[in-house]
Amino acid sequence: MYYLKLYCCTLLCFFVIDMVWLVLIARGFYQKHLGFMLKDNPNWPAAIVFYLLFVFGLLIFVIVPSLDASSTKKVLILGCLYGVITYATYDLTNLATVKNWPWIVTVVDMIWGGVLATSVSYLGYLAGKWLQ
């Protein structure tokens, strides 16, 4: 039950923070640079599967090992690395394969991946400490 609660807390943090970014902060940026290929409405089933898998990865590779080590430093470093690397996988693949993919989107998105995963990992770490 502990891990399910930890997962749900982390998932909620991830969703809220990413929605603030996508809807309130970066919407204009993505519209400007990717508007030619954006859907009017997102494919929510695909987005939900991404959120579920990404947060599962955060728990397995970042949060739980950091809780086991009782290390704030570890959660921050691993969270940042996880975010940059996972977002780089998407963005650099697009830069390599999608015609007219803007390099600025790759840079901003990879930075965002690092910020998002670090923030969510830290909040998940705090939730894990609180739930223990």
Automatic annotation (TrEMBL):
Pfam families recorded for this chain? DUF2177
Tell me which UniProt keywords the record has, alphabetically.
Membrane, Transmembrane, Transmembrane helix
Report if keyword Membrane is assigned: yes
Work out whether the entry's keyword set contains Heme: no
Q: Which residues cross the membrane?
A: 7-30, 42-63, 75-90, 110-128
Q: InterPro entries, from UniProt?
A: DUF2177_membr
Its protein name is DUF2177 domain-containing protein
Q: Which organism is it from?
A: Symmachiella macrocystis
